[in-house]
Design brief:
One of its GO terms (biological process) is GPI anchor metabolic process. This is Transferase transferring acyl groups. The protein starts with a helix and ends in an 8-residue tail after the last helix. Helix 9 packs parallel to helix 17. It is mainly alpha-helical.
């Protein structure tokens, strides 16, 4: 009796949970585009409604080393709660109970933004305000927070039936919104990387150590508590953190000027795609694995080539948009146009590659997937650039909080996700129960991250 109690798994539904996220085919590209419109549109509308002084009064900082104003903690957290109610909670609704209304929600959010820009502000006023607009770097900062928020929401939501299966990761070919997570992290890091700013430093290499540590920590945790692991995602031992670490190691060792990173990245992707089309794709989607470490983790190991090519293109684009261009006056307008053109171009390339070369596959990180990631990410960024035309606020309080502790907030989300999965039978939870759990989870994540920001706590790991 005692032995049976000791042998009892901490996660008795492990197999069922793994099956729940297996053999999925993803969503349509048009639905991904609609979902990718909603988050930045909500941020833009929130900035519009917040006014010029609300955020500054809530948490004013002269620079990154100065703590927010502590005497107004009530105002700070009330503003943070409003940010949650107007941005995070609506996203949660769209990803769950309003999933069938994604297109309608996207259109209903875009219309007021477009009408405001076209009819409520004269052209002369727009021109006069250009010099006051925040730099594109502020928009990229906002975009990176959007990536983290959606990722944190989805990693727990996917374990509940209230979350549509088509939004989860596809098994082989196809793409759900969750398939874009790891690619979005790669692009978000590339745009603001030291390489994009043409800064050579061993700090770039030393910053990889926490990713490697977290990768091994995840292996130990998942095996220790018998946590569900979808082997077809990265392999038996590989995970998200190892992919980011591998890309960073390659980029740090092989030094390429950011001007040429884009060309090198395209050549890597082209060569890798030829290899895939020559038979490597059949090997990667096969369930057969030998005992060697590479075969056990073939998805994670081989996809490094795709993610490295993606990162190099992102570095080149970051240099092109942030370093090799002025930031004020007309140049700001030119930057915005560039972002919109890039978004449209990447989407067109993704559709062409998906239809005529090879279908999108995150599992292999093929050429079509890379272009889809860039198209979706630059779509989010392009919509966020509209905030500058209706509000001169750089960031919301929520954005500042997550920006200060990007990795810390993501780790907290992973810990909370693990705790919920080990304490709740997510598969049998009703829609109401699931939504309440997800609401408490996202609210807790936002408040804890906000608390750390308010007191100037930076969760550094190196």
């Amino acid at each position: 009796m005692e032995g049976s109690l000791l042998d009892k798994s901490l996660n008795p539904n492990k197999l069922l949970k793994e099956q729940f996220v297996s053999n999925l085919t993803g969503s349509s590209l048009s639905e991904i585009a609609a979902l990718s419109t909603i988050v930045p549109a909500l941020v833009v509308l929130r900035k519009w409604s917040s006014g010029d002084n609300t955020r500054r009064d809530a948490a004013k900082k002269n620079d990154d080393k100065v703590l927010p104003v502590r005497k107004d903690w009530m105002q700070y957290f009330s503003t943070l709660v409003v940010d949650y109610l107007t941005v995070v909670l609506p996203v949660l609704l769209v990803f769950t109970v309003l999933a069938e209304w994604a297109y309608t929600c996207a259109i209903s959010l875009v219309i007021p933004i477009a009408l405001y820009i076209m009819f409520k502000r004269s052209q002369s006023r727009l021109k006069a305000g250009l010099s006051q607009l925040p730099s594109l770097r502020a928009d990229i900062s906002s975009y990176r927070v959007s990536v983290v928020l959606v990722t944190c929401l989805c990693i727990l939501a996917v374990d509940f039936k209230i979350f549509p299966r088509r939004y989860a990761k596809a098994e082989t070919y196809g793409s759900g919104i969750m398939d874009l997570g790891v690619g979005s992290f790669v692009v978000a890091n590339a745009l603001v990387s030291r390489q994009a700013r043409n800064i050579t430093s061993m700090a770039a290499l030393s910053s990889i150590s926490p990713l490697i540590f977290l990768g091994f920590a995840r292996i130990i945790f998942t095996s220790g508590v018998d946590y569900q692991v979808h082997v077809g995602e990265y392999g038996v031992h590989w995970n998200f953190f190892f992919t980011l670490a591998a890309v960073s190691i390659l980029t740090s060792i092989v030094r390429i000027h950011p001007k040429y990173c884009g060309l090198v990245g395209l050549l890597i992707l082209a060569g890798y795609q030829i290899w895939l089309s020559s038979g490597l794709n059949d090997y990667l989607i096969s369930d057969k694995r030998s005992a060697d470490i590479i075969s056990q983790n073939k998805e994670g190991v081989y996809s490094i080539l795709g993610y490295w090519g993606m990162f190099l293109i992102g570095v080149s684009l970051g240099y092109y948009l942030l370093v090799d261009t002025g930031l004020k006056g007309k140049n700001r307008n030119v930057q915005v146009v560039k972002v919109w053109v890039l978004a449209a171009s990447f989407w067109i390339l993704a559709i062409i590659l998906d239809n005529y070369v090879e279908r999108v596959s995150r599992r292999m990180c093929n050429f079509a997937y890379v272009m889809l990631v860039f198209g979706q990410n630059f779509q989010v960024l392009s919509i966020l650039t509209l905030a500058g035309f209706i509000s001169y606020e750089k960031n919301l309080v929520l954005e500042d909080a997550f920006n200060q502790n990007m990795l810390g907030s993501f780790l907290l989300a992973n810990i909370l996700t693990g705790l919920v999965n080990l304490s709740v039978d997510t598969l049998s939870a009703s829609s109401l129960t699931a939504f309440m759990i997800l609401s408490v989870y996202t609210f807790t994540l936002c408040m804890v991250t906000g608390l750390a920001h308010f007191f100037g706590v930076r969760m550094k790991f190196w």
